[in-house]
Amino acid sequence: SADDFEYLVSKIRTIPDFPAKGILFRDFMPVFADAKAFSILMHAMEAALPVPVDQIDVVAGLEARGFLFGPALAAHLGKGFVAVRKAGKLPPPTKKESYSLEYGEAAIEVESNIITEGQRVLIVDDLIATGGSARAARNLLQACGATIAGFSFVMELDGLDGIERLGDYPTSSLLRMP
Ligand code: PRP
Ligand code: HPA
């Protein structure tokens, strides 16, 4: 309902100039700390899935904030979860992809044999800004043999064209904010 959605949004905290000057940081931790908001979030993400649930084999989430949403959503949907980690954390063999962030440079990895050829992967994250992280995850998972089923974000930042820059994939976001 509209009341539920408003309640969910009320739990997202906004912090100016973190972690760098000019960044309006969106903090979702209070959503997870609140049982009602957490439940509303899971149901809202399920309702907003960019493809029918039977077209998804596995959910992949991006470290670190995608590790909060991803496994919870995967369990809610009855799917498995694949961790896309910051480089250097996973044991070999891994595949790696470098990318640039709104505030920095990064590289991500997945375990080479965690995806089976043709598995349909839903990529989830808290927020899409420039789309650099999500594009890197897309490239990396494709290099592992995955088919990208789509992308689910909780929030899309206005004015950065992150979703447009992902390419032509089914995509959903619950909120669009500055
Ligand atoms: C944030 C956020 C997304 C990404 C969005 O994560 O959780 O993953 O940035 O930005 P982009 O669309 O411009 O790539 P961050 O890399 O800061 O890592 P964290 O989750 O470990 O805080
Ligand atoms: N806010 C704004 N930009 C960002 C964020 C955020 O929380 N995360 C990555 N880019």
* Distinct small molecules: 1-O-pyrophosphono-5-O-phosphono-alpha-D-ribofuranose, hypoxanthine
Query: Within the largest sheet, what's the order of strands?
Result: 5-6-4-3-7-8-9
Low-confidence stretches: none
Order of helices and strands: HEEHHEHEEEEHEE
Mean pLDDT: 96
Number of helices: 5
Tertiary shape: globular
Strand content: 35-45%
Provide the helix percentage. 25-40%
| Amino- and carboxy-terminal Cα gap | 24 Å
Looking at the structure, the CATH topology is Rossmann fold
- What's the main sheet like? 7 strands, mixed
- CATH A-level architecture: 3-Layer(aba) Sandwich
E-strand count:
9
Structural class call reads alpha/beta
Number of domains: 1
Radius of gyration (Å): 16 Å
The CATH class is identified as: Alpha Beta
Describe this structure as you would to a colleague.
There is one protein chain. The protein has five helices and nine strands; from the N terminus they run H-E-E-H-H-E-H-E-E-E-E-H-E-E. With 178 residues, the chain is α/β, with parallel strands linked by helices. The strands form two sheets. It has a seven-stranded mixed beta sheet with strand order 5-6-4-3-7-8-9, with helices on both faces. Helix 1 (2-10) packs across helix 3 (35-47). The longest helix has 13 residues, at 35-47. The radius of gyration is 16 Å and the shape is globular. The structure holds 1-O-pyrophosphono-5-O-phosphono-alpha-D-ribofuranose and hypoxanthine. The site of 1-O-pyrophosphono-5-O-phosphono-alpha-D-ribofuranose has 18 residues, from strand 7 and helix 5.
